[in-house]
Amino acid sequence: QAPPAVERRTTRSTCCYCGVGCGVLVHSRHDAAGERITGVEGDPLHPANLGRLCSKGRTLAETARSLHGRALVPELRHRRQDPRPPVDWAVALDSVADRLANIVERHGPDAVAFYLSGQLLTEDYYVFNKLAKGLLRTNNIDTNSRLCMSAAVTGYKLAFGADGPPTCYEDLEHAKTVLFAGSNAAWAHPVLFRRLEEARAKDPDVRWIVVDPRRTDTAAMADLHLQIQPGTDVALFNGMLHHLVWEGLLDQAFIDRHTTGFSELKRLLRDYSPRMAAEICGVPVEDLVTAAEWFGRSAASLSLYCMGLNQSVHGTDKNLALIHLHLATRQLGRPGAGPFSLTGQPNAMGGREVGGMATMLAAHREITDPAHRAEVEALWQLPQGSLPPQPGLAAVELFEAVRAGRIKAIWIACTNPAHSMPDLGPVREALQRAELVIVQEAFANTDTVPYADVLLPAATWGEKEGTVTNSERRISRVRAAVAPPGQARPDWWIAREVALRLEARLAAPGAAPLFAADTPAAIFAEHRALTVGRDLDIGGLDYAVLEQRGPQQWPFRAGAEQGDARRYADGVFATADGRARFHVTPYRPVAEPTSARFPLRLLTGRLRDQWHGMSRTGRVPALYTHSPEPALRMHPEDAARRGLKAGELVRVSSKRGGLVLPLELSDEVGSGTVFAAMHWSGQHLASGGINELSQPAVDTRSRQPELKHAAVRVERADFS
Ligand code: SF4
Hints:
alpha/beta, Phosphorylase Kinase, domain 1, six-stranded mixed barrel, binds iron/sulfur cluster
């Protein structure tokens, strides 16, 4: 008897976690008994990581192998209180289409909303966006990227005229001064951090400045740590710029020729002498001046920033104030220099590119611009004037509208808002009150799934095809190593199947078919067509080029050999007059100041080895060794003042709710500040996750909530 045939394959793909976008080689075994992913290693040819992986990437195979908790069949119920039995795909898809069409007919298109994820692939995002805006004609489509990157988007657009960083990963190796602002890259972007460490080891002149209220691992390795009071970043950057003006460390010729608005900003800077700014920030003035000197006198200054700037009611101003430092000194557009926002999720960038948010149209177009709407209408073959002209509701407002009954149906894909949104009580209420909740998920055990009237089982990493764009604008292929388990299907397929059914019911007779593209490659080609002539033009890129030449950066125009590594090198920006813009950025305090009742500042953030709500990383025992359990970190002096000891259970409360956590004493946080990780949720803790306490105040321009800061009190947990 012949031995069973065993085939071993290696599939080139991209890590599904953070925005570094590391290339991976996925090893799989296929035989008569089935197929499974057997191992993952770093792709030595991928320019983002050159073979390196962090702890999360290295354990991808373990997370992919387990079917525990996977959503494997569609489930459907007609009344919230009923059980949700399995059904065929056809029944589930027909039901979703019928119920959405019915709601649109009764209440109009804006009674329907979509809430997506920066972990969807570009092709998934594209279909959803076209379904919402092109077919249903609602802009109520937002994403969890609103919670992490929208302030960076708004900052880039206001300063440069277009979204997207002007920098690339090679700049990590060329930078002489690296300014980390609100970024614990050592944990959140570990492979980039390794590249920085190696660059510093080779060049003794490289200096690191870290701006962070916590003494993170990144801060501990800095040459200068500015441990500012939470939320005071704008004052710090204004103070630094004041010093640069005073010392004549500006590139005045560049400011005069390539920017506008500097004189107005300069007037504001009078109020931010280094001494005054240092006082606001709670740092020694000498340190602020040193940071400004290092930044301004450096041959190449690179800023790396992340949620510490973005997750703030003043996130846009924080981004702008940092970009001002670069514009005023022309620290951008050349190797090693520039403001570089690090994206948290693997495809936050791709979602922005297809316009998969309530405030954008495809290919970085503006919903409110009639010419942009007309371009998209022409490319989608829609009647002129059919795209809705008003932006839709962004994440926080969207769930509020569900709670208020203005939105009747919400379709949630690949994200877990009952864990990740701020102020969870009202979010849960919204999900409970909604007439129809559709949850499209790979995992059936998230906090959001219990609210689903329809559960649509989705394929996940290792099982689906498409593309993602990483933090340096590099588009990489994601490839399937194995087939999805059970009846799980790719996200784009699910969205398209519903779209086809809705199109049959809602489209005008004779209308051009909107969803003819029926493969990821064809969807990508459609997306490409919308980018031509735009700042992110990828007219020269398709799946064949990605196959032959590997991951590529945008813009990648037709006929180009490669994409642009850096932008704005010629000093011409994407604004109407080609000039970058300075803005007036006064410092304003956090949305929720401390008080006698809530005297401590709660900061939130990531752990080194966990990802978001731990649907995947939570399956790997080795990933718990670094931080085995949730905890509230408090400065020893604050604990002593309250008579609290390490390890005991404490109740941490804000105006919105309370949570019981073990206490960990650490001088990582300053006195008056406590820290808790964002990963643990109601799935792990009876009292819920940290967003029970966080507050929903948003930045008026980016509409990003202040997830990083809330006023809280801490006391011994009382179980009597
Ligand atoms: Fe994945 Fe990010 Fe780690 Fe790279 S750095 S392996 S993309 S989690």
